[in-house]
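From the pipeline queue, job 12 of 40. The input is one protein chain; the requested action is below.

Action: predict structure.
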Amino acid sequence: MRPHTAVLPDAAWPMAHTVFVDWGTTNFRAYLVAPSGTVVACKGSAEGVKSATGRHAEILESHVRDWIQNHDIDAIACAGTIGSELGWRDVPMIDAPAGLEHVARSLQPLTVPGLPPIWIIPGVCQRDNPERPGMMRGEEVILFGCLARSGLDSGLFCCPGTHSKWVTVEDGMICDIQTVMTGECFDLFRTGSVLARSLSGWSGDIDPAWFAKGVGTAMDVANPLQSAFFVRALHVQGRLPTPDARASYLSGLLIGAEVRGMAPGTGRVTIVAPAKLVSLYAQACGVVGFACDTVDDEACFVAGARAVLRMHGQSMLGPSNHRLQHTPRSSS
């Protein structure tokens, strides 16, 4: 294996493989990407930032070790909560309105012995509306990829997850960011509230019929802090018969409340998420009566991360300014 002299992209980039890491609060996902842009391999785990304190280098190395031994890898780019004060390094966010170039010119380098050079992608922060502040880390990369793949340059986008993001983009610029803590609230209700007993034994699957009932209730009862207790009441009354039914109903209550509160009365929203979440949010949008398009988030993340690295190389004076020497571990 040759020693790596990793460069951020210049006119000839990419000449080797690249690793892109979507490292959020709850989950870790890494993609090995060939120079052509093809995803060669991917790995994922529940080693999100909240469970990775002090072990960031160890976790990353454990996932990419075999890739480094078998491929020439010139750079690792990480996005998400990993670049926050909760993560590996607190990288200053870029103020909205912000586009691809604004984010790309502010990558932060990180050096770990035995690994190719690491670049942390900054998030985007909305400060111009003190009554409705917003920020995101990682979703900006997904959105840049979505714009590139879809040909859109404006619109309303929803990125569901632990902290769902509803983002307005105008002429390729991220202008407004709103966060709804739907995923985290579901987890807190499930593990740390009076509902925990009702939800114990949940298989992890969502029953579409019970989910739809929850969404329907959210249309009538706007306050999810009120409707969430319906799960316990209906359980005690024998009207929510199984843990899967109760979890699905709660999911419908929370996602329904989110969509009802965030979706405007007209227009369309593009939902960018894994297939499972896409289907749930699309179902909720249908109940609300809001038109939606759906896009796979993994393909968008890879496309966005490649676009960020390429733009970063174009925005600098030359690749010689970004070279970091790397001597890989022995493969023995």
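Job complete. The longest strand covers residues 173-180.
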